[in-house]
Amino acid sequence: MLSLNSNSKYTEEYSYNNSGEYPIIDGSTQNFQYKFKINTFDYDNDILSISTVGYYAGHVNIYNGKCSIGNNVACFILTNYAISLGLDINYLAFKIFQITKNIISGESGGYSALNINKFLSTYIEIDNEEKRTIILD
User: How far apart are CA 115 and CA 117, in angstroms?
Assistant: First the structure.
């Protein structure tokens, strides 16, 4: 129902060499303040991102439109099947944040880090017209 994606090919150097209009969503992206924009995109749909390392570790954001995925972030891209079930991305973001805010672990290079293994072994119960449980792994 959901696809977990992360892509580290979009480095700072890559961004400077391929500057454009499409944002790169990374672990430091908050409130549509994009650090880099490039001239191509990988996705053109609803994306729910979770910062995995740093000051914003565990924060959840929703993006819609053309973009690519950078470093220090886990992204869930709603599949057509999930959308056909009536899964609401805002509700899903709320449910995921209820989990991630409680599983920030220690530090990684001086920064907070999301315990991604613990997160991936978590069940998220979604209440739509009927109960649905989604396993994130």
Answer: 6
Positive or negative, the CA dihedral 3, 123, 8, 64 is positive
Q: How does pLDDT run across 25-76, given as a tens digit for each residue? A: 887 776 667 788 999 998 888 888 888 887 788 888 888 889 988 888 888 8
- Whole-angstrom CA distances from 106 to 89, 110, 111, 112 are 29, 9, 8, 6
Q: How far is CA 96 from CA 15, 34, 35, 76, 93, in A?
A: 29, 22, 24, 11, 5
Which residue(s) pair with 61 in the sheet?
A: 49
- The pLDDT tens digits for 2-31 are 444 455 688 889 999 999 999 988 877 766
| pTM of this structure | 0.75
Distance CA 56, CA 50 (A): 9
